[in-house]
């Protein structure tokens, strides 16, 4: 199946690009970059791939070669996704590799959005979830280390994403550890919406907020430095502790209740935002949230994949230092740190 898919794509894309650009080939002057998406046949994959293909993530002048990776049983569905990409005749898509073979899937890849993961089944313990996903991310780490670009930027979306990223990064010997991150941008975006709604402003007016910690119900939405329309903004503490924080922490569960499926479009959107910000940077008057290897800032044990407020410049992020942490926030931080330390202990055997 894999060979069939790759051969088919190569042929049809050549035809398509000739038909669209003739000999002049406008705009797409940059060499293409390779973007890998695991879990490409899943629901987040479906909401993500077409937007990346249209240039929303890396810009309208950046051609892409899509590397779509899923498990063997999902290859038929993935073939359907590929046919749909072809039928969009995207000007920026210069190739598609669709495969269940990670050595092929990660070959020379510049960006990886790791969405594929084993979901938590009914009655499954969190420890088992960690172990099952640990195997997946150990394997993926080995392939990325061996085959991907040395400058690859990785965001782990598949849950439990912080600890999956920790396991993955542990396999990496030849690429900087800073290139391995996990996604809390969805939680950040959710917080931004709740605050904009409360203050009666647009989401883009809300700045200098952040998510600390784990992508789980212990996450800490931090708003003590919030600005709205570039002015310091405050909301009452009771609303923060009793409404705002629980709403952001439980938003994923609320969406499952309503949709009978987990959030997909908003998760895909956030994964793209994560990479776009990593590439293009944050503005001087703002920061964002990324789960990254802790350097010990804010008392977080070194090496944990922990969400921090970060500012980004020239493709490099740095933790925003010196934010005041009230006793209220310190209590919440301690809980999310403990949860991530417990998760790390549960997969200790995979980190040797
Ligand atoms: N970090 C976040 O904010 C966030 C938000 C929403 C969802 N998620 C997580 O994203 C993941 C995917 O969600 P979804 O709704 O797309 O699920 P889905 O079940 O629709 O799709 C998952 C896909 O991953 C594939 N897959 C599983 N293991 C794989 C592997 N080893 N290699 C390649 N592909 C593999 C499956 O075959 C499937 O096609 C879940 O773990 C979910 O919990 C994270």
TrEMBL record:
<feature type="binding site">
    <location>
        <position position="70"/>
    </location>
    <ligand>
        <name>NAD(+)</name>
    </ligand>
</feature>
<dbReference type="Pfam" id="PF02866">
    <property type="entry name" value="Ldh_1_C"/>
</dbReference>
<protein>
    <recommendedName>
        <fullName>Malate dehydrogenase</fullName>
        <ecNumber>1.1.1.37</ecNumber>
    </recommendedName>
</protein>
<feature type="active site" description="Proton acceptor">
    <location>
        <position position="215"/>
    </location>
</feature>
<feature type="binding site">
    <location>
        <position position="190"/>
    </location>
    <ligand>
        <name>substrate</name>
    </ligand>
</feature>
<dbReference type="Pfam" id="PF00056">
    <property type="entry name" value="Ldh_1_N"/>
</dbReference>
<dbReference type="InterPro" id="IPR001252">
    <property type="entry name" value="Malate_DH_AS"/>
</dbReference>
<feature type="binding site">
    <location>
        <position position="120"/>
    </location>
    <ligand>
        <name>substrate</name>
    </ligand>
</feature>
<dbReference type="InterPro" id="IPR010945">
    <property type="entry name" value="Malate_DH_type2"/>
</dbReference>
<feature type="binding site">
    <location>
        <position position="133"/>
    </location>
    <ligand>
        <name>NAD(+)</name>
    </ligand>
</feature>
<dbReference type="GO" id="GO:0006099">
    <property type="term" value="P:tricarboxylic acid cycle"/>
</dbReference>
<feature type="binding site">
    <location>
        <begin position="157"/>
        <end position="159"/>
    </location>
    <ligand>
        <name>NAD(+)</name>
    </ligand>
</feature>
<feature type="binding site">
    <location>
        <begin position="39"/>
        <end position="45"/>
    </location>
    <ligand>
        <name>NAD(+)</name>
    </ligand>
</feature>
<dbReference type="GO" id="GO:0006108">
    <property type="term" value="P:malate metabolic process"/>
</dbReference>
<feature type="domain" description="Lactate/malate dehydrogenase N-terminal">
    <location>
        <begin position="33"/>
        <end position="179"/>
    </location>
</feature>
<dbReference type="InterPro" id="IPR036291">
    <property type="entry name" value="NAD(P)-bd_dom_sf"/>
</dbReference>
<feature type="binding site">
    <location>
        <position position="126"/>
    </location>
    <ligand>
        <name>substrate</name>
    </ligand>
</feature>
<dbReference type="InterPro" id="IPR001557">
    <property type="entry name" value="L-lactate/malate_DH"/>
</dbReference>
<comment type="similarity">
    <text>Belongs to the LDH/MDH superfamily. MDH type 2 family.</text>
</comment>
<keyword id="KW-0560">Oxidoreductase</keyword>
<dbReference type="InterPro" id="IPR022383">
    <property type="entry name" value="Lactate/malate_DH_C"/>
</dbReference>
<dbReference type="InterPro" id="IPR015955">
    <property type="entry name" value="Lactate_DH/Glyco_Ohase_4_C"/>
</dbReference>
<feature type="domain" description="Lactate/malate dehydrogenase C-terminal">
    <location>
        <begin position="184"/>
        <end position="346"/>
    </location>
</feature>
<feature type="binding site">
    <location>
        <position position="159"/>
    </location>
    <ligand>
        <name>substrate</name>
    </ligand>
</feature>
<keyword id="KW-0520">NAD</keyword>
<dbReference type="InterPro" id="IPR001236">
    <property type="entry name" value="Lactate/malate_DH_N"/>
</dbReference>
<keyword id="KW-0816">Tricarboxylic acid cycle</keyword>
<dbReference type="GO" id="GO:0030060">
    <property type="term" value="F:L-malate dehydrogenase (NAD+) activity"/>
</dbReference>
<dbReference type="GO" id="GO:0006107">
    <property type="term" value="P:oxaloacetate metabolic process"/>
</dbReference>
């Amino acid at each position: 199946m894999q060979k069939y898919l790759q051969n088919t794509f190569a042929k049809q894309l050549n035809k398509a690009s000739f038909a669209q650009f003739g000999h002049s080939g406008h705009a797409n002057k940059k060499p293409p970059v390779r973007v890998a998406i695991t879990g490409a046949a899943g629901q987040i994959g479906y909401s993500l791939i077409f937007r990346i293909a249209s240039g929303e993530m890396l810009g309208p002048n950046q051609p892409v070669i899509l590397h779509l990776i899923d498990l063997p049983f999902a290859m038929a569905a993935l073939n359907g996704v590929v046919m749909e990409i072809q039928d969009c005749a995207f000007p920026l898509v210069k190739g598609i590799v669709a495969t269940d073979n990670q050595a092929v899937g990660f070959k020379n890849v510049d960006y990886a959005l790791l969405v594929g993961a084993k979901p938590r089944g009914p009655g499954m313990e969190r420890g088992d979830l960690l172990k099952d996903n640990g195997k997946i991310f150990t394997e993926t780490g080995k392939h990325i280390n061996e085959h991907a670009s040395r400058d690859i930027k990785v965001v782990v979306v598949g849950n439990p994403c912080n600890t999956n990223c920790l396991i993955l990064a542990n396999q990496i010997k030849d690429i900087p550890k800073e290139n391995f991150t996990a996604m809390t941008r969805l939680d950040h975006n959710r917080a931004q919406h709740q605050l904009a709604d409360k203050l009666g402003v647009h989401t883009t007016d809300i700045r200098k907020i952040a998510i600390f910690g784990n992508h789980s119900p212990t996450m800490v939405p931090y708003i003590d430095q919030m600005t709205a329309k570039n002015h310091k903004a405050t909301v009452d503490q009771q609303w923060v502790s009793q409404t705002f924080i629980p709403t952001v922490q439980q938003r994923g569960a609320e969406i499952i209740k309503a949709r009978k499926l987990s959030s997909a479009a908003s998760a895909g959107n956030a994964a793209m935002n994560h990479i776009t910000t990593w590439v293009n940077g944050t503005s001087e008057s703002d920061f964002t949230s990324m789960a990254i290897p802790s350097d010990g800032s804010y008392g977080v044990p070194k090496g944990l994949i922990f969400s921090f407020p970060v500012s980004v410049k020239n493709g490099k992020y740095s933790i925003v230092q010196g934010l005041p942490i009230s006793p209220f926030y310190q209590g919440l931080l301690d809980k999310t740190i403990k949860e991530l330390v417990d998760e790390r202990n549960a997969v200790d055997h995979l980190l040797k």
